[in-house]
Design brief:
- With 454 residues, the chain is mainly α.
- 77% of the residues lie in helices and 0% in strands.
- The protein contains 18 helices and no strands.
- The chain has helices at residues 15-23, 26-38, 42-70, 74-81, 88-120, 130-141, 144-164, 169-192, 198-206, 215-228, 235-240, 249-278, 288-298, 303-337, 341-360, 367-375, 377-415, 425-450.
- It is globular, with a radius of gyration of 21 Å.
- It starts with 14 loop residues before the first helix and ends with a helix.
- Bound molecules: tryptophan.
- Tryptophan binds at residues 22-23, 25-28, 101, 227-228, 230, 233, 235, 321, 324-325, 391.
Length: 454
């Protein structure tokens, strides 16, 4: 079996670092609030948290055990575990999914860099209202050259890191910067919760209106739980394979889930009060944070400094996520096709750029692409398919695989290899065998028969 030309993460740097860097990103701060807003708030947020616990964490253990046991990237891992079967195609589905996610993710990540630049240029001051901040967003997203340019820029930076290996500066920086992001979010929460619109924001976010629960909303809450934890496409299989034997895997997995979910909730606590402050629509879609965050900064001293710190940290959080997405795809070509890492990196990044172009044009620049898919736009459409449906199907099959094909005892043994006991192993076995695959199957079946309504 070909050994993976990993060379990117120093195992010394540890797993929590790499995996937390992958998990924490635009999913928490950009995707969580806009999707919560789209599906009505309260009930959706509760479903998201429920799915993190009941499906996300079990699938995280499933992926990590596969990766840690096989020490291989997804396709190779399945080949090792069940040679001659069709399971490696599940790894291939993950590669396709990651490719799709990386393409639109780069566009939004590029926007965060632009917004950091806007802060440097002093654009977040002087009574920024919804009209103004909406205008900034409309202007930039209508500009094809900027939009394509910044997506290309972000993919380029990602490729440079993945090609060179991320063991050095960037990962060290991320360890330090993710806690900084956390603390900085706490400061913003402090401001948001003292705004006159705090009550409205909190009510929107936490008051469940059960009649608003729809099939599309339920699946999207599940998709968000998986997306935010980087699950369902093999990223955690890959990271599990980087694990040191003496790493405390169960504790690390739970730490990551708690940290990741807290960041999403904190982002919501900032964005929903701001939403009512500036008078934006919760259903604004992918532009939501870009439009409403200006209101928070403007309500603070040194608004441009605040905005710069926020968008700067967000860009770095996004970078550690795009690295993980590109890494999984590159690992596939290196491991399975025998490509050199350098070649794989540039070919994949280049192809991904081609798919990023229509996404970049679909936030305003091209009318056709912006209006596609019932107004979701091309970006929203790729997000829905790769970020929700494919991740969901991937998670269903991964849990089915561990529960029924590979077997819970083997998986638990893999997790406990480092000498740390897996807590509630029996409950995990039950979740991974019955609850995860069945719940997802029922959801998807219901969608197929009742009409998905997306
Ligand atoms: N979890 C990241 C975020 O929340 C995005 C991400 C990185 C991802 N790698 C992934 C999502 C793998 C799904 C699968 O921003």
């Amino acid at each position: 079996m070909a050994t993976l030309d990993r060379g990117n993460f120093n195992s010394r740097l540890g797993f929590v670092l790499a995996a937390a860097g992958s998990a924490i990103g635009l999913g928490n701060i950009w995707r969580f609030p806009y999707t919560a807003g789209t599906y009505g708030g309260g009930a959706w947020v509760l479903m998201y948290i429920f799915f993190v616990v009941v499906i996300g964490v079990p699938v995280m253990f499933a992926e990590l055990s596969i990766g840690n046991h096989t020490q291989a990237s997804p396709v190779t891992a399945f080949k090792k575990l069940v040679p001659g079967s069709w399971w490696p195609y599940l790894g291939a589905l993950g590669v396709v999914t990651g490719f799709g996610i990386l393409s639109f993710y780069s566009v939004i990540a590029g926007l965060t860099v632009v917004y950091a630049g806007f802060a440097l240029a002093g654009r977040f001051s002087g009574g920024l209202d919804i009209a103004q901040s909406g205008m900034i967003f409309t202007d930039i997203t209508a500009d094809p050259v900027w939009m394509i340019g910044v997506a290309a820029f972000f993919l380029l930076i990602t490729a440079l890191v993945v090609r060179k290996g991320v063991g050095g500066g960037i990962e060290k920086a991320a360890t330090f910067l993710m806690p900084v992001l956390f603390v900085f979010l706490l400061i913003l929460v402090g401001r948001a919760l003292t705004l006159p619109t705090a009550g409205e924001g909190l009510a929107f976010m936490f008051q469940p209106h059960l009649d608003e629960i729809t099939f599309a909303g339920t699946v999207s809450a599940l998709g968000q739980a998986l997306f935010s934890l980087s699950l369902g496409m093999g990223a955690m299989i890959t990271y599990g394979s980087y694990l040191d034997r003496d790493e405390n895997l169960p504790a690390s997995a739970i730490t990551i889930a708690v940290f990741d979910t807290s960041i999403a909730i904190l982002a919501g606590l900032v964005i929903f009060p701001a939403l009512f402050l500036v008078g934006a629509e919760a259903t604004a879609g992918p532009g939501l944070i870009f439009v409403v965050m200006g209101g928070i900064f403007d309500a603070m001293p040194a608004s441009n400094v605040m905005a710069f710190i926020f968008y700067g940290l967000l860009s770095i959080a996004a970078l550690t996520s795009t690295i993980s997405l590109l890494e999984v795809i590159v690992a596939y070509f290196v491991d399975e096709k025998g490509w050199m890492r350098e070649k794989a990196t540039w070919v994949v990044a280049g192809a991904c750029f081609a798919l990023a172009v229509p996404s970049a044009l679909s936030l305003g620049a091209s009318e056709t692409l912006t209006g596609l898919g019932e107004g979701r736009g091309f970006l929203g459409f790729v997000d829905l398919f790769c970020g929700t449906y494919f991740l969901t199907i991937g998670a269903m099959l991964i849990s089915f695989f561990v529960g029924w094909r590979w077997g819970v005892p083997a998986a638990v043994a893999a997790i406990e290899r480092g000498g740390h006991k897996m807590p509630v192993a029996a409950a995990w076995g039950f979740l991974v065998r019955y609850v995860c695959p069945l719940a997802i199957l029922i959801l998807l079946f219901y969608g197929a028969t009742q009409g998905a309504n997306w």
